[in-house]
Amino acid sequence: MPLDFLTAWGVSTAVGFLFQPVMKQFAQDVGKDLLKDVLKDLLKALSYLPLAYLSKRTVNAPKIPRLCRL
């Protein structure tokens, strides 16, 4: 029983030691890619909003007569 526990602990420690740098780099790359995708989507949304707002305002603008001209 103690030998099984010691073997399992040794194997898990060795695997963790070997794959820690790989997983650390993978986690950093995933974080960078996720941030880049989120910022790209945000910039697309922000660039689309003023165009959609302006086109809607000009096409659907109500005709209000001017009562006084300055």
Mean pLDDT: 76
Q: What general outline do the C-alpha atoms trace?
A: rod-shaped
> Can you count the beta strands?
0
Segments where pLDDT lies below 50 for 5+ residues? none
Q: Over the alpha carbons, how many angstroms does the gyration radius reach?
A: 30 Å
Query: What percent of the residues sit in helical stretches (DSSP H or I)?
Result: over 70%
In angstroms, what separates the terminal alpha carbons? 95 Å
Element-by-element helix/strand order: H
Query: Beta fraction of the residues?
Result: under 5%
Structural class: mainly alpha
Specify the number of helices: 1
Q: Largest sheet, if any? A: none
Describe the structure.
With 70 residues, this protein is mainly alpha-helical. Helix content is 83%, strand content 0%. It is built from 1 helix and no strands. The protein is rod-shaped and about 95 Å long.
Note the topology.
Blueprint: H1 2-59
Features:
single chain, about 70 residues, rod-shaped, 1 helix, mainly alpha
Give me a quick take on this structure.
By secondary structure, the chain is mainly alpha-helical. The protein is built from 1 helix and no strands. The protein has one helix at 2-59.
